[in-house]
Amino acid sequence: MKRYFYAIVLAVLTFIAIPFIAAAQETGVTTAEVEVTSGDQAYQSYLAAPASGGPYPAVILVHSFRGLEEGYRTMTDQLAAEGFVVLAVGWQTFAQDPGDDVMQQLVEDSIAFLSAREDVDPARIGFTGFCAGGRYTMLYLPQVEGIKAGVAWYGFPNNPGSSVAPASLVDQLDVPMLIIHGTEDQPSPIAGIYEYANQLQAADAYFELKVYSGEPHGFMLSGGALRTDDVAQDAFNEMADFFKRKL
Questions:
Q1: 62 close to 140: Cβ distance less than 8 angstroms
Q2: CB atoms within 10 A of CB 148
Q3: Cα 5 from Cα 237, distance rounded (Å)
Q4: How large is the C-alpha radius of gyration of the chain?
């Protein structure tokens, strides 16, 4: 009886494991819940990486003010499938708005976290963020050493937060940045993005700008999930292509 029971359990476990093995082989990506230590606190984060090989370029992903929603995890997986080690930092683990100084330290510690991995090339680390994360992208690209390129999604260039407005730092920006925005963004009107682009141009900073007609703030996610339509796919491809070219 025990042998029979053991055989059944083994057969069930084997059957359950097959879909997961197939998924891993199909995507070539491994994922894990990880902790990034910063300021003596462990930030609950999410990591996705190519299953083998390397070293690869890496990307730090900073979610919006609404948290590390499932759509950002999906995007992290998809970006890893494009050949990047991606760390989605749970920056709201301890406070909804930790402040710019705390965030900068967390970003620097995230760079150290990735740089310590054998599958990461520490000379090729990028940064991307959404909403508040878009502002952090604009804010830290000119200030944090170790970031080689960034993609700012519907950010806030004129919001000073708890320190300074990103627009005041355009003279310090010396790495390439892609800005992605929608024309119907109410919290961060497109007029402010055009003004920011003019300031970047005047400062001779390298940037690219992709604007989507009719798209609102936070357009990549709907109900917490990643959109799968043509606009969302095109926008994701813009980010992936930019990092492939610049990292």
A1: no
A2: 20
A3: 50
A4: 20
Residues whose CB falls within 8 Å of the CB of residue 100, separated by 6 or more in sequence, listed in order? 139, 161, 162, 163, 164
Give the model's pLDDT for residue 27: 65
Instruction: Please report whether residue 115 resides in a domain.
Output: yes
- Band the pLDDT of 67: cuts 50, 70, 90: confident
> Does residue 211 lie within any of the structural domains?
yes
Q: Distance between CA 155 and CA 167 in Å, rounded?
A: 11
Report d(CA 183, CA 215) in Å as an integer.
6
Is cis: bond before 160, omega within 30 of 0?
no
Asked, for residue 195, whether it belongs to a domain, the answer is yes
Total number of domains constituting the chain: 1
Q: What is the pLDDT of residue 13?
A: 29
Strands 177-184 and 207-216: parallel
Instruction: Express each pLDDT in 20-47 by its tens digit.
Output: 323 344 569 999 999 999 999 999 999 9
pTM, full prediction: 0.88
